Predict the structure.
Amino acid sequence: MNNNNAEYYDSQKNVGAISKCESMYPETANAFREIQAEQYMLFCRKQMDYGPSNIALGKDLAIEENKQFSHQGLWFRMNDKISRIQNLLWNKNKEYNESLEDSWIDIANYSIIAMLVNRDKWGK
């Protein structure tokens, strides 16, 4: 199978999976898309506050060492969120500054940001 046929096959497989998922689980699929829209809105608002240099640490991410350092920073931020979630769930502490859901969204966004860094798309 040549490259074009492989891409076509994969895209058809994806379309089939999406179609089947949406028909079998319409409420879940709609809610998933709504959450993704919320994630994107939060991402954009935070980009306006922070800009890309907080993730890049003011460094050139084309250099592998800087990219690795950026990933470590993202891991550290995600670890803070996971610790917060653990504290709220295990200790049944009251939320004061941000909801539990906000922490889940932050983790998801940090994961996407890590992929953007890895794919050389961050801050471009």
The chain has a mean pLDDT of 90. The two ends are 35 Å apart (CA to CA). The CA atoms of residues 83 and 93 lie 12 Å apart. The chain has two domains: 1-38, 51-124.
